[in-house]
UniProtKB/TrEMBL annotation:
Protein name as it appears in the record: Fungal N-terminal domain-containing protein
Length: 148
């Protein structure tokens, strides 16, 4: 049976991973700035993910040791969400390509090439959106269990 302390540790790791992945998604979307209409839904899902992670980070410490069923349910949700976030992280790395941190002209060229390749990445962006939806739904379930 999971105790509240281990849930807090799991939640802290999950929040850290989630915010890192969400930041990578934001960077990728920013590189595709000319595609705002196509990306608006994914941006909203990404923003919701960030906000939900922050709420869980704040409130998971309030889990009481006497609520074993709730603790186990939250742990299951967080484990599932961690799997979703790891899949998202791999997908973002694939979309963004190697060496996301580059300077000057190389950065501009890379940004332009991402814009040009955007139509070919569209199915992957739809996959990214679906994974964001799954992660958000799992986190919403954890929030309901925490009665937030």
């Amino acid at each position: 049976m999971a105790d509240p302390l281990s849930i807090s540790g799991l939640a802290a790791g999950l929040v850290s991973l989630g915010l890192q992945v969400s930041g990578g998604i934001t960077q990728y979307f920013d590189a595709l700035e000319c595609r705002d209409q196509d990306l608006s839904s994914a941006r909203q899902l990404n923003d919701a993910l960030q906000k939900t992670l922050r709420v869980i980070e704040t409130h998971v410490a309030q889990l009481k040791s006497g609520h074993h069923a709730a603790t186990a349910a939250v742990q299951t949700c967080l484990d599932s969400c961690k799997t979703d976030l790891q899949a998202l992280q791999r997908l973002v790395a694939e979309l963004a390509g190697p060496d996301q941190v580059v300077a000057g002209r190389v950065s501009k060229i890379k940004s332009r090439s991402q814009k040009l390749l955007y139509p070919f990445s569209r199915p992957k962006l739809q996959q990214l959106e679906a994974k964001l939806r799954n992660a958000n739904a799992t986190l919403q379930l954890a929030m309901q269990t925490l009665e937030l």
